[in-house]
């Protein structure tokens, strides 16, 4: 197995029986019933003996047998566990430790326990609202004993400790095992509950959540004293509890107690000595900067060397210590102020070390960026260009750190938010309880300084700090702003709206403009389409997203310049120049006509991919097949065999009768849709009505194509050709069916990802049905809406189909033969994910800028699940950790070699978009197409006018005051 996969936990995610699963509404009702029940999700109290028997509360287990007393789960809760794999109100003493860890479902049960803990704190006990007072439901000493036993068991596994370091440390905060609790989460939830009843307390709540420090205690006390007369008895009690929690949280680190704890460690190695030295020396440290640096270094050292401690008892002591150190680090980093550019950069580097030490960043990720962080501190002064490069690197650290909690928990959070929307706040709570919060603030301060020096200024209404917003793709738009805080896949988008997403949906329909918290990756189909069509696209922080909710539903103007600065303002704030951009004349698009003068519709037999080359694109078949045929000739050992169903076969089937009573063919019906649209436009009917008519008609056409009969001579032909090309009968080799139309990869239009690709189909009937599904896919709403923006003759879109055997690649992705956003036209932008179909659907992929000298990690993968392609057909879903890179040096060398060959054979006047993968370190090519950018957006006079003129050679002393 490949080196990078040996450190990856690849686990098949169990599939639950959906036929018996409870619906979201049923689960909501169940939660509501538990909240109102004094016993919550529990049935009654019983003794559970070690021999498997149960006894009544007054009849304890005999001493020679042993046992514990706790509540028994209700049947409805047991049913929910069995049918939906959902776990509420866990009593740890009742749980099997292996089932609780839930390794087969990538620690799903363990993560749900943590989510439950969060929901208890923010929703007055949640399912235990009244059961919190159900005496005997669980015993704290039994829960703690179980928790300690659980951790001592799982910490024996070296691979688990290294691959799941972040998850383990978070679990230690939530699972009782040493009289501990998650005090930071409690502080935030108590302030949140008070702010819901007291609107004028909201500003303090925001401070506690966003920029907490010890002074907050006095601020809360002052508010309490001033408003006591207006508070209810319950609210007074809540304030007293909050103040007590804050005093506990901000209490100084008890160095003497920690020294006594650490003496219990058996292994007295160099790491142990470093801990002892810190505890003895830093207990009197008054220099905050030094203390934060020492804390960060110690956290990093413990994580780096934890496997040197062989006993799980030692590891548990160390990990508990790291959580106590982190709590102090969070407090002191807020007190760590910087006044000069040098101090600011030093603090960023210090917190980057802390982020690695606490598990937010993996070791290999930190090593990949460490030189870019440290180099500026070796100089007395820096150019603006070097500072900008440093800012890009440090912003990356913030994004990687903030993305770790989401990557680890998001799959189960999305399940929970279907029936409990409050669960959505869990990930934000994890980010705010980490060093990512202060790291983000420190990097933001640097961004403000550099923007001021560069004269770059984002002009974004209602945003208190816009320095973290950066443009990804130039363009401008006007439309209704829609802020989507949560899963974007369930949002029905409107072409005329501007959207702010937490992450871009993989099948986004065309929109006027996009902001995203997580940009996915630079080479996903959505990003390429946005780049192609000049759709303004920018990245922002999650805090920015929440602030911009104030503009939700309002008409705004949005622009991203060629230099990446961003404008967002209300419609009534637009200048006359900006308003003039949206006159009828200015809105006219560069309409493209799909060339059909050379199309070969007379060829109605299946073609071997070896018999085509790039010159056949748009004539016999689409560019996927034609270019892959070209690549097969150039790289015979790196391209699979393939078959092509040319345009002519599609057209021949479309000339069959669709309606036998009228004799109308499928082709007649298709053309009638466009003829009717033309007639409606001549009658001045609005475009929305016309579009709705077309979409309804396309739905009818798609269903008809999927059910059309295939010609017997075609079926015989494909069976014969399949055996020749793949040396097996149809139905014995799993294949991909890839739509390949004549509207793709035109000079002005890419069409990336608009039509259907079917993965790893084995069954003969499914392959034949799949052919018709692919033929129907150009008439989906998404495909039609994207292409109608550019095409004057969309009725002349012809799909061919490329059939290639599946390669169960270890990892796959996309290469653009130029730098995107960073780098030059001589560089490569590469994005890869584990398994098949990597990077194209917007996965959080490992993204690199590869140059002639080296490669830069732009982003690590943060995608928990991936798919593999079994020989039996279909896909299997697996999960991974993030503690090793996907690409290795041999892969990067192969990528460079491939790019050089492509440029040599296909020319350097055009950049290319290449899809490929690696199986056992061998490269397999799957697709190549021209990389298309929107030249109009880049050259727009308006966008040029808002782009600042920057002297990148300007030098700045590191002693400059911020």
From TrEMBL:
Known function: Catalyzes the phosphorylation of pyruvate to phosphoenolpyruvate.
Record keywords, A-Z: ATP-binding, Kinase, Magnesium, Metal-binding, Nucleotide-binding, Signal, Transferase
Pyruvate phosphate dikinase AMP/ATP-binding domain: residues covered: 620-941
Pfam families linked: PPDK_N (PF01326)
Annotated catalysed reactions: pyruvate + ATP + H2O = phosphoenolpyruvate + AMP + phosphate + 2 H(+)
Keyword Ion transport attributed: no
Pathway the protein acts in: Carbohydrate biosynthesis; gluconeogenesis
Domain of life of the native organism: Bacteria
Similarity remark: Belongs to the PEP-utilizing enzyme family.
Enzyme class: transferase
Cofactor(s) demanded: Mg(2+)
Protein name as catalogued: Phosphoenolpyruvate synthase
EC number: 2.7.9.2
Annotated source species: Mesoflavibacter profundi
Gene3D superfamilies referenced in this protein's UniProt entry, alphabetically: ATP-grasp fold, A domain (3.30.1490.20), ATP-grasp fold, B domain (3.30.470.20), Phosphohistidine domain (3.50.30.10)
Signal peptide positions (record): 1-19
């Amino acid at each position: 197995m490949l080196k990078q996969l040996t450190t990856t936990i690849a686990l098949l995610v169990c599939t639950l029986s959906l036929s018996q699963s409870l619906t979201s509404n049923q689960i909501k009702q169940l939660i509501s019933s538990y909240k109102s029940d004094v016993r919550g999700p529990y049935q009654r109290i019983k003794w559970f003996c070690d021999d498997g028997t149960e006894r009544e509360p007054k009849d304890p287990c005999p001493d020679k047998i042993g046992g514990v007393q706790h509540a028994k789960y209700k049947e409805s809760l047991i049913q929910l566990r069995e049918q939906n794999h959902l776990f509420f109100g866990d009593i740890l003493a009742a749980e099997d430790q292996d089932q609780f860890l839930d390794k087969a479902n990538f620690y799903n049960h363990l993560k749900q326990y943590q989510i439950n803990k969060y929901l208890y704190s923010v929703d007055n006990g949640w399912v235990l609202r009244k059961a919190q007072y159900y005496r005997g439901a669980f015993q704290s000493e039994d829960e703690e004993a179980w928790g300690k036993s659980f951790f001592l068991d799982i910490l024996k596994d070296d691979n688990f400790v290294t691959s799941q370091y972040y998850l383990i440390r978070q679990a230690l905060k939530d699972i009782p095992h040493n009289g501990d609790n998650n005090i930071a989460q409690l502080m935030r939830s108590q302030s949140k509950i008070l702010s819901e009843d007291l609107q004028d307390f909201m500003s303090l709540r925001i401070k506690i959540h966003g920029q907490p420090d010890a002074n907050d205690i006095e601020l809360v006390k002052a508010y309490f004293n001033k408003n006591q007369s207006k508070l209810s008895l319950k609210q007074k009690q809540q304030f007293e509890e909050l103040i007590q929690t804050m005093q506990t949280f901000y209490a100084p680190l008890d160095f003497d107690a920690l020294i006594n704890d650490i003496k219990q460690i058996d292994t007295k190695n160099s790491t142990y000595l470093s801990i002892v030295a810190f505890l003895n020396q830093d207990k009197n440290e008054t220099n905050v900067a030094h203390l934060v640096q020492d804390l960060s270094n110690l956290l990093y050292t413990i994580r780096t060397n934890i496997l040197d401690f062989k006993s799980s008892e030692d590891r548990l002591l160390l990990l508990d210590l790291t959580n106590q150190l982190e709590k102090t680090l969070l407090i002191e980093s807020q007190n760590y102020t910087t006044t000069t550019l040098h101090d600011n950069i030093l603090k960023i580097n210090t917190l980057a070390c802390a982020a690695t030490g606490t598990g937010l960043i993996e070791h290999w990720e930190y090593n990949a960026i460490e030189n870019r962080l440290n180099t500026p501190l070796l100089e007395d002064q820096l150019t603006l260009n070097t500072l900008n490069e440093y800012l890009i690197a440090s912003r990356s650290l913030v994004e990687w750190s903030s993305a770790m909690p989401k990557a680890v928990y998001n799959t189960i959070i999305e399940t929970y938010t279907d029936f409990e929307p409050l669960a959505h706040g869990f990930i934000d709570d994890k980010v705010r309880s980490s060093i990512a919060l202060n790291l983000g603030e420190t990097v933001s301060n640097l961004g403000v300084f550099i923007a001021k020096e560069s004269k770059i200024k984002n002009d974004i209404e209602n945003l208190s700090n816009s320095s973290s917003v950066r443009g990804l793709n130039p363009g401008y738009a006007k439309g209704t702003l829609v802020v989507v805080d949560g899963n974007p896949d369930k949002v029905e988008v409107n072409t005329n709206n501007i959207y702010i997403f937490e992450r871009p949906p993989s099948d986004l329909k065309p929109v006027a403009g996009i902001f995203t918290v997580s940009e996915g990756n630079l080479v996903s189909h959505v990003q390429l389409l946005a780049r192609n069509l000049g759709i303004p696209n920018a990245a922002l922080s999650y805090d920015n997203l929440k602030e911009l909710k104030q503009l939700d539903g309002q008409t705004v103007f949005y622009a991203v310049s060629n230099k990446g600065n961003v404008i967002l303002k209300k419609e009534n704030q637009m200048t006359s120049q900006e308003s003039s951009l949206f006159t009828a004349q200015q809105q006219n698009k560069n309409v493209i006509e799909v060339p059909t003068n050379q199309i070969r519709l007379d060829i109605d037999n299946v073609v071997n991919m070896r018999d085509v080359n790039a010159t056949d694109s748009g004539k016999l078949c689409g560019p996927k097949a034609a270019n892959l045929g070209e690549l097969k000739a150039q790289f015979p050992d790196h391209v699979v065999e393939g078959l092509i169903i040319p345009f002519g076969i599609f057209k021949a089937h479309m000339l069959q009768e669709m309606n036998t009573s009228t004799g109308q063919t499928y082709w007649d019906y298709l053309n009638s849709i466009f003829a009717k649209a033309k007639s409606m436009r001549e009658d001045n009917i609005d475009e929305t009505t016309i579009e709705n008519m077309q979409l309804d008609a396309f739905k009818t056409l798609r269903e008809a194509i999927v059910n059309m009969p295939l010609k017997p001579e075609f079926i015989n032909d494909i069976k014969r050709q399949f055996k020749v090309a793949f040396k097996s009968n149809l139905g014995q080799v799993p294949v991909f069916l890839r739509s390949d139309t004549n509207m793709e990869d035109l000079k002005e239009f890419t069409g990336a990802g608009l039509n259907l690709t079917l993965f790893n189909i084995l069954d003969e009937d499914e392959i034949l049905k799949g052919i018709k599904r692919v033929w129907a896919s150009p008439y989906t709403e998404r495909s039609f809406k994207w292409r109608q923006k550019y095409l004057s003759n969309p009725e002349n879109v012809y799909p061919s189909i490329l059939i290639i055997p599946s390669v169960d690649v270890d990892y796959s992705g996309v290469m653009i033969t130029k730098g995107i956003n960073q780098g030059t036209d001589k560089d490569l932008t590469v994005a890869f994910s584990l398994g098949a179909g990597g990077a194209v659907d917007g996965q959080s992929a490992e993204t690199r800028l590869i140059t002639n000298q080296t490669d830069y990690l732009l982003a690590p993968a943060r995608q928990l699940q991936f798919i593999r392609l079994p020989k039996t057909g279909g896909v299997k879903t697996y999960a991974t950790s993030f503690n090793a890179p996907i690409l290795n040096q041999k892969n990067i060398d192969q990528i460079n070699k491939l790019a050089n060959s492509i440029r040599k054979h296909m020319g350097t006047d055009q950049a290319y978009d290449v899809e490929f993968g690696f199986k056992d370190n061998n490269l397999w090519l799957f697709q190549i197409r021209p990389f298309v950018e929107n030249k109009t957006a880049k050259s727009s006079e308006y966008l040029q006018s808002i782009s600042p003129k920057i002297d990148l050679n300007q030098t700045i002393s590191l002693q400059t005051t911020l």
